[in-house]
Amino acid sequence: MNVYGYVRVSTREQNGDRQLLALQALSIPQTNIFMDKQSGKDFQRPQYIRLLRRLKKNDLLYIKSIDRLGRNYEEILEQWRLLTKEMEVDIVVLDMPLLDTRRGKDLMGTFLSDIVLQVLSFVAENERVNIRQRQAEGIAAAKSKGVRFGRPSTTLPENFQEIQTAWKNKELTLRQAAKACGLAPGTFYDKATQLDKTDPEDKP
Questions:
Q1: CA dist list (Å): 136 to 131, 159, 203
Q2: What is the pLDDT tens value at each position of the chain, 204 positions in all?
Q3: DSSP 3-state of 7
Q4: Which segments within 57-148 are labelled E, that is strand?
Q5: Rounded to two decimals, what is the model's pTM?
Q6: Which of 87, 147, 155, 191 is an S-S bond match for 142, by CB 3.0 to 4.6 Å?
Q7: Which residues pair with 62 in a beta bridge?
Q8: Contact present, 84 and 90 (Cβ < 8 Å)
């Protein structure tokens, strides 16, 4: 039997030290701890896939909490079934002692474990949905107050059209025209070509 640990944080900026310390306290070899810095919305994660390839029958997998495994209710249940039923791997969720497949392998123990898993999986996904809803509501509220999202619009100089015309007539190179406007060459090119597409009556 080999012992493994799995750690997941949602972004590259987040720190997985709390999970790592909990697993290292169990004397799990460092080479057997797999860590993804990726959203838990699905299981297409490189380190998790590597872990699946390593796991064999009767191996033991530790995770800190069920939401570290994933956040999609149906997929968590499917992965749990794959690991415990098809691959015959044991799983221990450290933050929830009831989710320890080494215990209660009789019918009642399995039944209780399945109920707890379904409840926790639902809570994990529900929290993910709530976060997205709060973000959407926050953005809507900010927009209603006049907050603008995305890059600020580029301010063009008053003589932009004259410079654009000079560039168009090949009196100025792209770099010269961009420099005269205080813009990057790519930005000048985009603005200049947009101006060409504007209806003549709409031009300044």
A1: 9, 40, 37
A2: 899 999 998 877 677 888 999 998 999 999 999 999 888 778 889 999 999 999 999 999 999 988 888 877 778 888 888 888 889 899 999 988 878 888 766 555 566 667 777 776 776 667 667 767 777 777 777 777 776 666 666 678 888 888 889 888 888 898 898 898 888 888 888 888 887 765 444 444
A3: strand
A4: 60-63, 90-93
A5: 0.57
A6: 147
A7: 5, 92
A8: yes
Helix/strand/coil for 80? helix
Handedness of CA 65, 68, 71, 73 (dihedral sign): negative
The active-site residue out of 10, 39, 121, 144 is: 10
| 3-state SS track over 159-174 | CHHHHHHHHHCCCCCH
65 labelled catalytic: no
